[in-house]
Amino acid sequence: MPNSKQRREQARRHLERQLVRRQQRDLRRRKLNLIGTVVGVLVLFAVVITTVLMLSHEDKGNTADPAASNSASPSPSATGSPLPSRAPSPIAARSPKKTDGPCKYAEDATKLTAGNLFDVGLPPDPKPTPTGNATAVFLTNQGTITVTLDGASAPCNVQSIKYLISKKFYDNTSCPRSVNSGIFVVQCGDPSGTTSGGPTYTTKDEGLTKASYTEGTLAMANSGPNTNGSQFFFITKDSNGSLGKNYSVIGHVSSGLDILQKVATGGDDGSNQAGGGKPNVPLYFKTVTLKA
């Protein structure tokens, strides 16, 4: 039977073993905590790197190129949805077409390969050219705009516009340009959603000497003498002092001018090198029809 000294020695060894086991448990716990901390830091680091890369890629994709204001890509609307636009079908290689009537609608061989031209044929060109008025109704995302087309002032251009309307050329198209300084216009009529598109043919200038660009006037946009196509601009505020007599007047707004003025005063993104840019208040035509 152990004596007192032996019992004390046994108790001491038992206590030492408990201390060693406790130290070992503490060491294992610290190692696990350290491993857990390192893993957590690595996971957090991976999440941060992934987020930064994603944001960097997104920023590159959204970088605007000021020189690409005539891009055919849909432009974002105020709601974030793309505005309507469409790409033209390739035009088969052929000789340019022209008409024999008084209006002499003609294609330019050098432009038949242009990226934003739409081949819808040529308008009728009877002799004499009709000079009567017509009513065009623009059903837009902002409301209805009604225009009286003036066949007496610009018979060939009005005949062309009526032809394009009959071909649904303007349906589901956006207005790519607004200017509210110097000149006051909202420019529309390009299915590509840029300011470089139109039909394959051009129309001559008409009535320039009598042209007046007062509020509510509708006039043809062009890229030089006798280059009228499908694009036109609504004048939202008198621009006689700023616009030269270079644009054929084809009509006047009879209702809906307030819609156009709202678009103009809403500002633009400044992307068009000729002035103004894509409207901050988006405007697009759902349908354009001729009123019987």
Domain count, please report it: 2
* CATH class annotation of the largest domain: Mainly Beta
Beta-strand percentage range: 15-25%
What Rg do the Cα atoms give? 35 Å
The SSE order reads HEEEEHEEEEEEEEHE
Unreliable runs: 51-80
Number of strands: 13
The main β sheet shows up as: 9 strands, antiparallel
Q: What's the CATH H-level superfamily name of the largest domain?
A: Cyclophilin-like
In round numbers, the mean pLDDT is 82
Structural class: alpha+beta
Question: CATH architecture of the largest domain, please?
Answer: Beta Barrel
CATH fold-level assignment of the largest domain: Cyclophilin
Explain this structure to me?
The N and C termini lie far apart (126 Å). The relative contact order is 0.15. The strands form 3 sheets. This protein has a 9-stranded antiparallel β-sheet, with helices on one face. A two-stranded antiparallel ribbon has the order 1-9. A two-stranded parallel ribbon has the order 2-8. Mean pLDDT is 82; it is low at 51-80. By secondary structure, it is α+β, with helices and mostly antiparallel strands. It is built from 3 helices and 13 strands; from the N terminus they run αββββαββββββββαβ. The chain folds into 2 domains: 1-61; 81-291, Cyclophilin-like (Cyclophilin, Beta Barrel). The longest helix is centred in the N-terminal third of the chain and has 58 residues, at 4-61.
